[in-house]
Amino acid sequence: MEEISVKLKPQQPTFEDDKGETNTKEGDGELDEKITKEKGQESEQDGNKEEDLETNREDGKCFKQDTSDSKNGSLNKEDSSLSGTKERSPERIRPPAISSVNMDLFIDNKIDKLGCLNDLKQIEAMAFFKRLVDDLMTLDYVVKEDPEIDLRSLLFDNMHDVLTPGQDLCDEINDDEGSVDSFTDDNRDRFPTLLEKPMSQLKDEKRTDRNSALEKLKSVSNEQLEVPLRKNSRIDANFEDASETAFTDDDFRRKSGSYHQNIDHELCTKIIQKFYLKQAPSLSITQYLERINKFITPSPAVLLSASYFLFNVAFDLKPENNCSLLPLQSPPEEEGPIKMTSVDSLDIFRLVLSALRISLKLIEDKNFKQAYYCKITGLQHIDDLFKLELAFLYLLNFNLFINEFSLTRFLFQFKVFDTNLRRYLKSRTV
């Protein structure tokens, strides 16, 4: 693959304070007021498009609805004029703080109870995205301290144990603060709601395999060994436990497929340099995401897609495009070790804005203008936003395929990664 050349003008971060505001020529606080005003004008224009009078269609003709109570109509007009109030566009409700979501409880318990992706709230999806960002930055720090760390095990080990929790995992989760009711005796060993169907299919396949193995043994006994089995033979009892055994990583791999290495890691290292700032902004990544959530409020689908893209970029992974809901397994070992692309305080801001911008364009029909998005995310030039989007697409190798299966699968994929990372960090502190 030929090396691409994307030139970005180095710029100082535009964030200078801790209140989520940017320093511009308009003065402190004027940017937020201007942004809110622009959004109010958009909603007011949409409201003016509605018809003042209701119309009914009959025999292919439109006519005004007959209003016999015209006096009441004029009375209402007088009342409104006396009150001296004008109809205004409703104020936009600001989303709650991201910290209002208990992510430990959400990952350990709530994800397993989701009936469908529509049950995911917007603030929960944003907190999920922030948790991914925090995990990637934490892992990047660990990798720089210990370059020989096994990323494959952190990403994919204990897959079936996390998704089908046993006694050890339940006790470990219940010991965590704020998640005492995560697992009880009634819901132990139950599969997540979204995975119940594929898990039941795996059970049926294992049961079918058990029955075929039993019939094969019987035929061998009758034909080759010439030892006929009695009708009251208890040989079936030896296979009863086999049908209820826990799933293994091989079962997941056979059903769900695996990742593959994406593009050359050295090329990714060169491309990622396009996302670096000269210095880290004084604004924290949490405040940065709060600002984006305040003025853009991305939908859950956009946030899940952005998380999905950012995860694949961080580890140079390309998922198989199939219709299974089961999480993917690690890439084949012959493709080499998994390496992590640097995700730190200098490049995370531009990686976040690029992932969200691409997801907005891909998922949503109505998008914000480039200039508006630059104001929110602190970019000084619109051209830089286009170049960042292009560089991020090259990091993804233009693998933008997304559907309900891939987003659902990623929820549990991240649960495995987050659980393994927490266990690893806990073992380091002991």
TrEMBL record:
It comes from Eeniella nana. GO terms for cellular component: cyclin-dependent protein kinase holoenzyme complex; nucleus. One of its GO terms (molecular function) is cyclin-dependent protein serine/threonine kinase regulator activity. InterPro entries: Cyclin_PHO80-like. Residues 16-69, 76-94 have a biased composition (Basic and acidic residues). It holds the Pfam family Cyclin. Residues 1-96 are annotated as: Disordered. It comes from the Eukaryota. This is Cyclin.
